[in-house]
Amino acid sequence: MPQRQPGAEIHAPANVLTGEQARFDVELRQTDGRSLWRGEAVAQVVADQPVEAAATAQRFSAGQGHELVVSLAGDAAGAMRHALHFTSPDDAVQAVGLLASGAYPEATMHATVQFAPVRHRHVEELELNVSVRDADENIIVRRNLRVPTEANVFTERVDVTPPVESIGPYTMEVRVEEPLIDLYFNWSGRFAFANALVPVTSMQAGEPVWFASSADPARINNYASPYRNELTESMPFAFDDKVTRSGGRSLRLDYKDGGSPVAFADQALPGRPITLRLWVKGNGSDDRLWVHFRDRTDWSKAGHQRHANTSRVDLGPLNFTDWREFRVPVLGAGMQAATRYDDPKAIATPIHLMALSVQPRKLGKDEQ
User: Fold this and answer.
1) What integer pLDDT is reported at residue 110 of this predicted model?
2) SS in 3 state form for 49-108?
3) Backbone angles phi, psi at 150, to 5 degrees
4) Per-domain residue ranges for the chain?
5) Does domain 7-191 bear CATH number 3.40.1190.10?
6) Distance from C-alpha of 74 to C-alpha of 170, rounded to nearest angstrom
7) How far apart are CA 141 and CA 127, in angstroms?
8) DSSP 337
9) What pLDDT, on a 0 to 100 scale, did the predictor assign at position 193?
10) What does pTM read for this prediction?
11) Which of 32-36, 67-71, 349-353 has the highest mean pLDDT?
């Protein structure tokens, strides 16, 4: 096992964070997608100061490329995701990254390129070429820069935000060449970027999108998820037209302290969704709200041939009593396939919102 331990330098503007600490989810993956390590970085929030944290990945596989993904969940100004793709520590280009910040329509995308120190008296600059192609392979962003070299490791950041009228998923290409130091670097990677905000009004439509398992047990048998056994306490719910955030009504779920209620759904999400926005009115408890997704599934096939993909996301505790907006990463994150002809196991559209569930806080001995 190699001893190399690269760190992820994490930045976020402090004025978009609340509380005394900021928490960052960190995941180390091989470039084939296999997760090697997951962790969390915690930073103190100081007024009028940028938030900085560091997380050191400690598990590596010999002979494999690695990717480090850092995510910060915040409001529109503070949400951030940085995926770093590492090369060899001895290479002139040590890492290439995709840094996504903010939320539609203020979202931005930047390429980050980390260079090793350059010590050659005839090389004072490096030529950096970055381009982005849309889903039809049209070049929509092209950046050509002369980057001054430095005696220490340095990082160049390049704005590659796609035009709002373009269609993804996108492909970014990075090229750096300098024959005097035998540098010929080429890298490409795909990414998704939101160019529209589409309302999903399931709480107000007359269609039976939301249901309880006791009311329709046949439908809930189609919930193909490894978390199915945890969703056992489905109970009746109501559409409330008195307590609403916007529109005519909201979905209301009442339950006893210590209960774990579930509201099942079969809500298809349009297009290739990246993020789902939810307005939630908390109940002041430490119970946690979870969102469950699945992709397109052919129920006419045998179970082992359906290749259903699922995911669930923890929105956090319900320890508030006002309305708050949450942004939830959707299964596939905008990189879903339209068909499964090339890969039967691919995450395929349409993506479905399958359930909302509540995980109760752990009760103390005097409460049980």
Assistant:
1) 93
2) CCEEEEEECCCCCCCCCEEEEEEECCCCCCCEEEEEEECCCCCCEEEEEEEEECCCCCCE
3) -135, 165
4) 7-191, 210-359
5) no
6) 24
7) 17
8) B
9) 92
10) 0.73
11) 349-353
